[in-house]
Design goal:
This protein is α/β, with parallel strands linked by helices and about 260 residues long. About 30% of the residues lie in helices and about 25% in strands. It contains 7 helices and 13 strands.
Length: about 260
């Protein structure tokens, strides 16, 4: 076998050039796993213009249902879009919102481990730019905690780069005042934001494994989604990043029995 063989697209005229190693079903699974862009560049050897946008609005799969929680014989069952939910979580990417590119966003995500469907159920865009007092800040935190309670969660991951370092302590105080046991996990981001967004979301979007509640599509998230590029500087992508971090770090097993905690430090 010559080296030239490895410099050929894996598919030629609709057929695998190496069917013994890469039959069509294996190629399809690989395509869904790595995402369309990685597949086309690495397996089909096609050039990708990094200045172009990555996602298209028509790729989005949406739903309208809300979570239904069933209680029976001390057992809890979570249903969404006619699917069982096994894990859930939320991630807060804070910002003062003072620059054109910054937003403070909380993403809430749930997953069915059997179907590998990820549900983006809520995206909160919080405005901190007009705060006049710490009480205004606390009110915003109360809003986030109320949503956590409503969605039957009791934990949140908070990015503590910059302004985020102030949130865990204040959030613990607010949760205590609300008599709600909230587990707050600080997270310090070290990786490239653009690449972690791309590498996390692109395979899920390509495979249609990620679904968005219709209310999420009425937030600034949708514009971030269609404008996202690997090369654009100072782009608005904080919602995309909050979602990425929620998917990568915040998902925890939902309680199946009454009285069992969801998450503990």
């Amino acid at each position: 076998m010559t080296d030239d063989f490895f410099h050929m697209p894996i598919i030629n005229r609709g057929k695998s050039i190496w069917p013994e190693q890469f039959p069509e079903e294996v190629i399809q699974r690989l395509r869904l796993k790595v995402g369309e862009f990685a597949f086309m560049s690495q397996m089909m050897l096609e050039f990708y213009d990094t200045n172009s946008t990555v996602f298209k609005e028509e790729q989005i799969v949406h739903y309208d249902d809300d979570i239904i929680v069933h209680h029976h014989n001390n057992e809890i069952l979570y249903l969404l879009n006619e699917e069982k939910l096994h894990r859930g979580g939320c991630f807060w990417d804070p910002s003062l919102g003072k620059s054109n590119s910054d937003a403070s966003v909380v993403a809430f995500v749930f997953v069915n481990d059997e179907t590998q469907h990820y549900f983006v159920h809520e995206m909160f865009y919080l405005d901190f730019s007009s705060f006049y007092s710490q009480e205004d800040f606390r009110n915003q935190i109360r809003t986030v905690i109320l949503k956590i309670k409503q969605l039957k969660l009791n934990h949140i991951f908070v990015e503590v780069n910059g302004i985020g370092a102030l949130i865990p302590t204040l959030m613990k105080q607010v949760a205590k005042d609300m008599k709600f046991k909230l587990y707050i996990e600080p997270y310090f981001s070290k990786t490239s934001k653009v690449m972690r967004i791309f590498e996390t979301l692109e395979p899920l979007i390509t495979s249609k494994s990620i679904l968005f509640h219709s209310r999420v599509l009425r937030t600034p998230f949708i514009q971030e989604f269609v404008d996202f590029s690997l090369a654009k500087k100072d782009q608005k992508d904080d919602g995309l990043d909050a979602l990425t971090m929620a998917l990568k770090h915040s998902l925890r097993v939902l309680p199946r029995f009454e009285g069992r905690v969801l998450f503990s430090n």
